[in-house]
């Protein structure tokens, strides 16, 4: 005994098959779009990683420069305090008051 399939059942199966094919195509298109997004995001991550490394190097350079400047300020502050604590060196008398030398 072989089962017979009515035309209505055949039509339903063909419709289901067409719907499944369409669904598969839509899902494949979604996969392609998601793969493109992933590739784009990977590029962004690579760029951001490279930028972060560049900024870290710049930060280290600026921090080193800041530390050098801070040391220079400390040194200059010490020198300024030392100069403030010492009396001024004697100034030379004005030329009108200097005794003439005997060698002339």
Q: What is the count of β-strands?
A: 0
Relative strand content: under 5%
**Shape, principal axes of CA atoms:** rod-shaped
Give the SSE string. Answer: H
Mean pLDDT: 89
First-last Cα distance: 150 Å
Main sheet?
none
The gyration radius over C-alpha positions equals 45 Å
Instruction: Determine the structural class based on helices, strands and strand pairing.
Output: mainly alpha
Instruction: Report the uncertain regions.
Output: none
Q: Please, how many helices?
A: 1
Helix content: over 70%
Q: What key attributes describe this structure?
A:
104 residues; single chain; mainly alpha; rod-shaped
Explain what this protein looks like in three dimensions.
- The protein is an all-alpha fold and 104 residues long.
- The protein has a domain at 16-82.
- The chain is built from one helix and no strands.
- The longest helix is centred in the middle third of the chain and has 79 residues, at 7-85.
- The termini are far apart.
- The model has no long low-confidence stretch (mean pLDDT 89).
Task: Compose a concise summary of this entry.
With 104 residues, this protein is mainly α. The chain has a domain at 16-82.
Write the layout of secondary structure elements.
Layout: H1 7-85
């Amino acid at each position: 005994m072989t089962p017979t399939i009515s035309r209505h059942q055949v039509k339903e199966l063909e419709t289901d098959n067409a719907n499944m094919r369409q669904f598969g195509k839509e899902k494949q298109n979604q996969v392609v779009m998601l793969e493109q997004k992933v590739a784009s995001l990977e590029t962004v991550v690579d760029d951001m990683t490279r930028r972060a490394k560049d900024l870290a190097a710049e930060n280290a350079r600026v921090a080193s420069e800041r530390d050098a400047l801070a040391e220079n300020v400390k040194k200059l502050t010490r020198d300024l305090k030392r100069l403030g604590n010492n009396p001024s060196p004697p100034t030379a008398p004005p030329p009108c008051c200097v005794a003439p030398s005997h060698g002339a």
